[in-house]
Amino acid sequence: MSLLERDRAVSAIEEVLDRARSGDGSSLFVLADPGIGKTTLLAEARNRARGFTVAAVTCSEPEAVLSYGLLAGLCEAAGAPVSRHAGPAGNPQDARLRRYVEILDWLRGTASAPLLLAIDDLHWADPDSTELLTMLSRHLGGLSVALVATVRPWPAAALDRARLLAHEGLAAIEPVGPLSVKASEVFLSERIGS
């Protein structure tokens, strides 16, 4: 099955993967309303990441209340030695900083193959993970890491972070709209026949 009217998004995916291959990591956020094909584009990113270690997670609304849930799943998928628990009670900012340093140190020490961090439905991520992911995105330059995440316009917290990163030149946002009538006809014909 073909990806219809998604050339710009596929080019943006290729660019972030090429940058990671050359040791200059970056982030790409694929922005679209529900049902437009964000997950399909993320699957395309995974297919195009030949030679990459791929760590993929999908966020879900019920799990958005689990502190560091997204980050723990992503680290587990990537093989990063980061604990799921914050450790002893103390200052939450200290725990956040400790996790950030652990993950960044691990990313800096992982040079055997480029790494793709593929995150579906980032809008459902817990706030702690979103914050740390934003911090990590600021330091991907010089690393062989591509971060590709899908996001809806709402809830807005993740998109707001992505926009801030894009404004600072640290990430790209690729908006994806609905298919045209002609492309919709081709899409339906490929799946159910004429």
Overview of this protein structure:
Helix 3 (69-78) crosses helix 5 (127-137) and helix 5 (127-137) packs parallel to helix 6. The chain is an alpha/beta fold. The chain has helices at residues 7-21, 38-48, 69-78, 92-109, 127-137, 157-167, 181-192; strands at 26-31, 53-58, 115-120, 145-151, 171-175. The two termini are 15 Å apart. The longest helix has 18 residues, at 92-109. Strand 3 (115-120), helix 5 (127-137) and strand 4 form a beta-alpha-beta unit. The mean pLDDT is 91. The protein contains seven helices and five strands. Helices cover 45% and strands 15% of the residues. A five-stranded parallel beta sheet has the order 2-3-4-1-5, with helices on both faces.
Summarize this entry quickly.
With 194 residues, the chain is of the alpha/beta class.
Write the topology of this structure.
Layout lengths: L6 H15 L4 E6 L6 H11 L4 E6 L10 H10 L13 H18 L5 E6 L6 H11 L7 E7 L5 H11 L3 E5 L5 H12 L2
Parallel strand pairs: 1-4, 1-5, 2-3, 3-4
Spell out the key features of this protein:
alpha/beta, five-stranded parallel beta sheet, 15% strand, 5 strands, 194 residues, single chain, globular
Strands, count:
5
Low-confidence segments, given as residue ranges, are none
Helix-strand topology string: HEHEHHEHEHEH
Largest sheet, strands/sense/barrel: 5 strands, parallel
Specify the overall morphology: globular
Give, in spatial order, the strands making up the sheet with the most strands: 2-3-4-1-5
Structural class, from secondary structure content? alpha/beta
What helical percentage do the residues reach?
40-55%
Average pLDDT over all residues = 91
Give the termini separation: 15 Å
- What is the number of helical segments per DSSP (H or I, 4+ residues)? 7
Beta-strand proportion: 15-25%
- CA radius of gyration is 17 Å
